[in-house]
Amino acid sequence: MNLPPREHHNAGIASNRSALPLKTTTRITTARLRRLACGVLGAASLAFTIDTASAQNGTNATAAYNGYLSAYLVTTHVNGYTYPLPYIAQSITNRNRLFMWAQAYVITGLEDHYDRLHAASDLTLINSILTSFLAQDKTDLTWDSWNDDLEWACIALAHGYQQTGNTAFLNAAASNWNAVWNRGWSSDLGGGIWENQNKGSKCVLSNAPFIIAGCMLYRITGDSTYITKCQQSYAWMRSNCFNTSTGQVIEGISSSGAKLTSNNSYNHGIFLQAANALYKVTTTAQYFNDAQLTVNWVVNNHSVMTEDHPNNGPFGSEEFFRGLSLFAAQNNLWTTYQPWLEANCTAAWNNRRTDYNITWNKYNTATPTTDLEAMETISSVIVQAVTQISPVAGPHFIRSYASGLAVDNTMSTAQGDGVEQWGWNAGDQQLWNFTQNSDSSWTIESFYSGYVLDDPNSSTANGTQIVQWPSNGGSNQKWVVTQQSNGAYVIKNQASGKVLDNDNKTGNGSPLVQWGANGGTNQLWYLK
What we know:
By secondary structure, the protein is α+β, with helices and mostly antiparallel strands. It has helices at about 25, 30-35, 60-70, 100-115, 120-135, 145-165, 165-185, 205-220, 225-240, 265-280, 285-300, 310, 315-330, 335-350, 375-390, and strands at about 75, 85-90, 200-205, 250-255, 260, 395-400, 405-410, 420, 430-435, 440-445, 450-455, 465-470, 480-485, 490-495, 500, 510, 515, 525. The chain folds into two domains: about 30-390, Glycosyltransferase; about 395-525, Trefoil (Acidic Fibroblast Growth Factor, subunit A). It contains 15 helices and 18 strands. The strands form seven sheets. It has a four-stranded antiparallel β-sheet with strand order 10-9-6-18, covered by helices on one side. Helix 9 (about 225-240) packs across helix 10. It is globular.
């Protein structure tokens, strides 16, 4: 999917080129369940012990995904229900459609799986299930008074647009996100977004998903007003719901000003995702530090996620798994946190029910063969998917090991323009999205222009400058990305067999070329 070309933007976002480096149909069961839905963070010592006999792999991830679809995906009308197809049912036996926000929530898990393999059949499902979502729940979702419900719809729709290019999804995400801000933000309690329009509380769960969706929309559109509002929401959330010493996240504040405490994985996961998303956009160190503090609060105290049904509801841990995967992959910390993800992945798999290969939210206990809700078992799909997603996947700044300069598209939207290296400034002209192809190679797309890195005319000559060109699936636009022992990567063109090289230059504006691999530091790159 090519992101649309857009004008450069700064407006408070780090992008100045001269700045060198620096929910059932009524909502699961009850409003309380929905409000506190989360995996409990029960005390346990950290232990990165993995049963190698059950070590996780892509086959397990695919089996969990296929089993989930077999258990919950409805593709023909049954029991008199006539909802637009397809949709996700409430449970294995109850084929009624999940309520709007829950439908969107589980769709994000299907999108995680697509990010792992990029299979055409999975993309077709995402396009069709989001289309049926809009047909049933409509593009204007303001009939729902819960602001976080709309935010989850925005996340599913914005990510769906990134994957499919379907502008109906983008338009619905943008309009509903703005509707949440317009009706939900107020100066009461010092700012923040109300959880519900009855104005009973302001919470992490009504501010963090707003930020996650807003950062996605910024990445798509380049409109910095998204980030301005996200930063305001984050500042309120950080001030009122985050312990800056320990990294612990609480629930929120009631309308009377009373603190709402709830130590759960859902809040920690969405806070983590919000902080990391803002860090990747702004490069403000506080967001990174907050994200890492939250990660370590959970990881250092809880080896395997468990969940307490009577008090907290049957879902939530998947948000921490997703958040940690993104944080680790996007900040060169995969080797630090992958063992923890692997331990949870293994526990989920070892305690699955084998008829559907799905797991409930008590990863340390065998999953029962009784009826299970779709909201509960989506975590088993997500933890398998995000643990298998390569740390290369997603948006990165590509910085030379030798010079410290970044791969830069020169703020060009013209096909055929050469790429060069320039002092890192965190602008979109230096941000590249890595998408894995079915042959395990990577397509590397500019966030600024929507064009991809290309070996012009499949040249095999040393010294050929790499250019940007519209994506066409050619082998000259496919790159084999291999991590080295020092954490850096070699980026080799599939067509020429030559690798990306900074030509032993240290100056801004130096062309980036391809050259035969020689093991030099000029051919090593960090993904940030």
